[in-house]
Amino acid sequence: MKTQLMKLTLAAMCAASLITASSTASAQDFASTSHHNWEVSVGWVGLKYGGSDASSAHSTHPDDRSFLGSGSAGETDLSDELLNFGSIGFRYLWQPSGNFNFNAGANWMMGNARDEKQNVNDPRPEQKGAFIYSALSTAADVGVGFSYKIPNVPGLSVGVDGRAMFLFISHGWDRWGSDEEVSSDTKCIPMVCPNIQYKFNESWGLRASALIGPDTIGGALSFTVSF
Questions:
Q1: 101 CB-near residues (< 8 Å, 6+ apart)
Q2: Average pLDDT, the chain
Q3: Is pTM beyond 0.85 here?
Q4: Helix (H/G/I), strand (E/B), else coil: 194
Q5: pLDDT digits (tens, 9 = 90+) for 77-136
Q6: Are 185 and 138 found together in one domain?
């Protein structure tokens, strides 16, 4: 009986050792060798843009000049708005050696940031008033960066990207609920984007980024799929 108990104990110890070694090897393999060439992401971007060119002057609509005059209709200013976007993007990942990854990619963003005001030269009640607007419904960015896989913490990496973000803004008159665009412009904002990413497994992950640029600050959160 004593001999059998000793054999069972030794067998259990051997099994435990094998399981521990296997788990450690799997964690090390995942941390050091798990990588893919492409990554697709879906998520959210929030941005506060405070540049001096965030405001836009508007003229009075031609149909209203007979009773409102031809002067300025006022200004709209998107710097007062938190710009929220849904985003979809892709990255190409390259791991030359060790724990470093290099990447290049792009994101497309869609939202509904808007500043709308009644003409400053319109004394009529709001229900009958003339309105001006600036709207930002689409944006995009492109960039390159690198990340570093944290040793002994499977799936976790930190990195930084350099990106150029483009904001596509339209300006015009709101004519009883329908936008009449007068002009549009594109803002280009250079950004430094530190980020942290956690991979649940070889395919699925979660990435959080800070967005820092001239007169601009924001954040992004996205789910990632690698293949």
A1: 35, 93, 94, 95, 146, 147, 148, 149, 157, 159
A2: 85
A3: no
A4: strand
A5: 998 778 999 999 999 999 887 889 999 999 999 998 999 999 999 999 999 999 999 999
A6: yes
Tokens read off for 197: 């990413």
Whether residue 21 is found in the same domain as residue 60: no
Helices within 34-68 (DSSP H only): 65-68
Identity of the residue numbered 110: M
- Which residues have CB under 8 Å from 192's CB, separation 6+? 160, 161, 162, 163, 212, 213
Q: How many CA atoms lie within 13 A of 183 on its CB side?
A: 7
CB contact set of 134 (below 8 Å; sequence gap of 6+) = 56, 76, 77, 78, 114, 115, 169, 170, 171
Q: How many domains does the chain have?
A: 2
